[in-house]
Structures are given as C-alpha cells and as structure tokens.
Design brief:
42% of the residues lie in helices and 14% in strands. It is of the alpha+beta class. The protein has one domain. Strand 1 and strand 2 form a beta hairpin.
Length: 135
C-alpha cells in the first residue's frame, strides 16, 4: 500500500498572459483564493484596453470588471500552453525532490529568472556576456 503525504501549504502561481505575444505580463504566488488573484489584478489594472479571458473560477468573476471579462475555455489555450511550458522548464513545479526549494520566494524568483531569460533581448544580453568569457 502506498502512503501519500498531504501537501499542507500548497502554493499557486497565477499569471496574466498577453494572447497576442504569448508573453507573461504579470504573476503572483500564493494560495488559490480571491486575495491572491486580487494582487494579480492590481498589477494589471492599468491595462484598460484589454479583455480578460478566464475559466470559471469564482474569484475571477468577483474581481474582474464584468464588461471586460469573458468566461470559457475557448480563449484560454494561450495560458494553458504557458502553464505547460512553465511546468516543463521548471521541474520544481511538478516533481517531489530534495534538490530544490519550494519556498514561495524561491518559486517566485525562479519564475522571474526563467521569464527574463525567455525574453529574447534579455537572453541575448546574457548570452553575449557569457560568451565573452571564452574570447
């Protein structure tokens, strides 16, 4: 018989993604609750010419302005693909391991570094710096 440990302190990453570019615009880590989502919305509130496409999570409907909120799975493929890429590239999000920290700050910082390095002009800067060591 296999015994499974309960995860007492689950942390969620909630992201806002630009559907046009596929880039992550903002993210927060925390519990799966309205307070965590409100922190994300506070980061993107200034974006007045956009529409928010979400699934049917109750917190979205409570916080997002109804005239700019569309609920349904049809338009969420971009964020689902982004979530899949995050899980793929940052193994700490999916597997149990002793090698990496899953503390909220470390998860946040790992995501920040990964998103920065997947931005072409930021990656190019660090790539040139790294390659200059070998010249």
């Amino acid at each position: 018989m296999a015994l499974h440990r309960l995860k007492k302190n689950k942390k969620w990453i909630i992201k806002a993604v630009d559907r046009g570019t596929g880039r992550t615009v903002a993210w927060v880590t925390g519990g799966r609750d309205a307070a965590t989502f409100r922190r994300l919305y506070d980061k993107v509130r200034h974006l007045t010419d956009c529409v928010f496409y979400t699934d049917d999570w109750e917190a979205f409907a409570k916080i997002l302005p109804p005239e700019r909120h569309v609920i349904g799975k049809t338009h969420t493929i971009t964020i689902e693909q982004d979530n899949s890429n995050t899980r793929h590239h940052l193994g700490r999000m999916t597997r149990r391991t002793k090698v990496v920290s899953k503390k909220e700050r470390m998860v946040y910082d790992s995501l920040k570094i990964w998103l920065a390095l997947t931005t072409p002009h930021i990656f190019q800067y660090y790539q040139q710096t790294f390659l200059s060591i070998f010249r």
